[in-house]
Amino acid sequence: MRSTRAVVAVALAAALTLTGCAGSRVANQNAKENGGGATGAAGGSAQAGGGMIPQLNFPAEADASVGNLVNYNPYSPKPLTSTWLYEPLMIQNGITCDITPWLATGYKWEGSEKLTFDIRPGVKWTDGQDFTAKDVAFTFNLAKKYPALDSGGVWNDTFGKKAKEVVAKDNQVVFTFTGNAAPKFQGILLQKILPEHIYSKVGDPTKYVDKEPVSTGPFKVGSYNGRRLELVRRDDYWQADKIKVQKLVLEGTYEAPQAAAKLSAGGLDAYWGEIPNPQKTFVDKDPQTNHFWYAADGINVLTLNLTKAPYNDPKFREGLSYAMDKDQMSLKATYNIMKPASQSGLKMPLMAKMLPDGMTPESTVLPYDVNKANQLLDAAGYAKGADGFRTNKDGSPLEVKFSVQAGWIDFQAMADVIVAGMKAAGLNAKVVQSAPESVDQQKKSGDFDAMIEYLLGGCDFARGLGGKLTSTNFPTKTDVKSNVQRFKDAATDKTVADLAGTIDPDQQKKYVDQLVNTMMTQYPVTSLIYAPARIIFRTDHAVGWPTEQDPYAHPYADNLVIMTHLSAP
Question: Which domains does the chain have, with CATH numbers?
Answer without folding.
Answer: 298-531 (3.10.105.10)
